[in-house]
Amino acid sequence: MTFPYTLTEPAGAALPLVVDSPHSGQARAGSLPSALPLAAPPEALLTGWDAYVDELFAHAPAVGGTLLCAEFPRWLVDVNRARDDIDPALVDGAMPFALRPSDKAGRGMGVLRRLALPGVPVYGAPLSPAMAEHLLKTYYDPYHAALAGAMAAHHARFGAVWHLDCHSMKSRGNAMNVDFGSERPDFVLSNRDGATCPEAFIELVGQCLRGFGYQVGVNWPYKGAELVTAYSDPARGRYSLQIEINRALYLDEARFVPHDGFARLRGHLDQLLERVADHIRAEVARGA
């Protein structure tokens, strides 16, 4: 069976750390359903790609973490949305479950994306309910099962688990974003205003990044979405933190090619993972 993700186990002694990159996958030749009514040009679809985020966090297994990376593109299925977060206008007919479109879906960015860029539809026609359900069952459900399973296994073994949900962001918000036209900081850390991990953990990560000279925002313009919300429960030792990286730090945003800043950033993120691993070891040792 071919899975729509890669799951890399710890290289040595395991820590209860799960790092996931849900938007770094790309469409491979012959991998998409032939009946998909695509309309957006490839360059528009590419703008939703969290380019090379899987590589930026590839050090996770070396520090004892589990690394989960999507192998499918975000524009096809966005696993960082609720499964029922679908714009009804995108589906021609009734789904086998009730839809609960959020504000994100209304702006074209639901679990099945309607827009690739402002004014640029992903599809030239609505999806059939059968196609929409096929996409969810083929990509969404296995990815969520893998993340939930990895976190549950670590929690059962250690009594706690830490989760880093890793993304990249455009250097400036566009018309589909709440911060349209605004320049963004180097990093945005999100915990749903304290709901998905303690302030001490978000501060630990923030201090580490600021120590490297980066500007760090907290809970704006991103508060954290489905992946940190669905599996976190700080009262029971389940801690999730969303990390957004400004693409300008490492990427030519027009050509989607890494520039000279990539190696520097990768080195700093390696050190961040080491710092997080040290924190987790200390917490596990004291029975957190």
From TrEMBL:
Q: Provide a Gene Ontology MF annotation, just one.
A: N-formylglutamate deformylase activity
What keywords are assigned to this protein?
A: Hydrolase
The EC number(s) attached to this protein equal 3.5.1.68
- Cited InterPro entries: N-FG_amidohydro
Protein's UniProt name: N-formylglutamate amidohydrolase
Indicate whether Magnesium appears among the record's keywords.
Answer: no
Q: According to the lineage, what is the superkingdom?
A: Bacteria
The answer to whether keyword Ligase applies is: no
